[in-house]
């Protein structure tokens, strides 16, 4: 059985999934998205993703396309039809279809909804985490509302390409003051020389990462210290450990920044432990 997509009320073969040419998400990036990690066929961090979706839509004055209960049923059906146990579910909601104009349509249109599901190889992911990954830095050049999870990701795509060409897994944006804001598709963390966890606070024009939020709860339960203040690439290189968090990466150790080793150049005990604890929490609470 091939992959199945959901497009505006219908499940269709993935290869046949299409949207209207005047969908505002396609033409104007007038859309938001969410990505759920799937464990055992269930949605991880579900509440956090639903809450962020609702907030992003509200910030753009796009109505929820259906109730949360109805959306949950459709999301689960998308997972079931694709027969995926461990993977990722992508949801996108645009303002809808209307003649191209920068301003919102004068008459309210129905939001457009698409979903896709893909499997991931957890064993391969664990092997990658055991080795750690590299990141590169790049100047912050995104718009001023990175707290909204929009599909306007061209700066992120360019940053990811820069990382790929350097043989790295992620790019960290660095603001005009020299501080790391976040990754192209993840939140950035270090374990400083005093053993404290540090990550940028979410008032600094960064995405309110759902994985980040859950991990903060895990960290609190473990009695570890978190300092929500910025750090520089030099701070990261002087740190004991570094890692990134996101639905696609979970908790992933970072072993180099711009080609230079972090710590001893291997995944550290804190990141490794937090990855295990996060996955345990995600599996236990997935719906």
Radius of gyration: 19 Å
What spatial form do the alpha-carbon principal axes imply?
globular
Mean pLDDT: 97
Instruction: Provide the low-confidence segments as ranges.
Output: none
Distance between the termini: 24 Å
Q: Approximately how much helix is present in the residues? A: 25-40%
Largest sheet: 9 strands, mixed
Per DSSP E runs of 2 or more residues, the count of β-strands stands at 15
Q: Helix- and strand-based class?
A: alpha+beta
Question: How much strand content do the residues show?
Answer: 25-35%
Strand and helix order? EEHEEHHEEHEHEEEEHEHEEEH
Enumerate how many helices there are, as a single number.
Answer: 8
Mind sketching the topology for me?
Layout: E1 4-7, E2 10-13, H1 24-28, E3 31-39, E4 42-43, H2 46-59, H3 68-82, E5 87-94, E6 112-119, H4 122-131, E7 133-139, H5 154-165, E8 170-174, E9 180-183, E10 187-191, E11 197-199, H6 210-221, E12 226-227, H7 233-238, E13 241-246, E14 250-257, E15 260-261, H8 269-285
Helix pairs in contact: 6-8
Describe the structure.
- The protein is of the alpha+beta class.
- Helix content is 32%, strand content 27%.
- It has helices at residues 24-28, 46-59, 68-82, 122-131, 154-165, 210-221, 233-238, 269-285, and strands at 4-7, 10-13, 31-39, 42-43, 87-94, 112-119, 133-139, 170-174, 180-183, 187-191, 197-199, 226-227, 241-246, 250-257, 260-261.
- Strands 7, 8, 9, 10, 11, 12, 13, 14 and 15 form a nine-stranded mixed sheet that branches.
- Strand 14 (250-257) and strand 15 (260-261) form a beta hairpin.
- Helix 6 (210-221) crosses helix 8.
- The two termini are 24 Å apart.
- The relative contact order is 0.15.
